[in-house]
Write a sequence for this structure.
């Protein structure tokens, strides 16, 4: 296995080294307690696993949440409404708010 702790090594990462060290520590702890009850092992590992999750979160940021809106479904819903009705105008405004930038970037217009 590559030693990522070597300075200036391509791919070296302090965060990765901390995660790899924590995984190694957890593995050793589990292997040393194979004869212990599972409940004892669980309580022993909960702190280590929480720390591992935090270290992994530092390396992999949370994904942004996106609204569950689908342009194709929104256009289909718009097409089913009477042109000029208040529902049609509201739906068109909603589509413009949600997708206006991407639509104009693609060279299209809602007008």
């Amino acid at each position: 296995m590559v030693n990522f702790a070597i300075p200036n090594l391509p791919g070296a990462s302090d965060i990765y080294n901390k995660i790899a060290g924590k995984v190694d520590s957890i593995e050793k702890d589990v292997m040393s307690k194979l004869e212990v009850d599972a409940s004892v092992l669980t309580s022993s590992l909960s702190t280590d696993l929480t720390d591992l999750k935090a270290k992994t979160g530092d390396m992999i940021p949370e994904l942004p949440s996106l609204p569950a809106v689908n342009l194709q479904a929104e256009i289909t819903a718009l097409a089913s409404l009477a042109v000029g009705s208040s529902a049609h105008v509201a739906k068109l405004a909603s589509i413009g708010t949600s997708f206006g930038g991407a639509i104009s970037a693609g060279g299209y217009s809602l007008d």
User: Anything to note?
Assistant: The mean pLDDT is 83. Residues 14-59 form one domain.
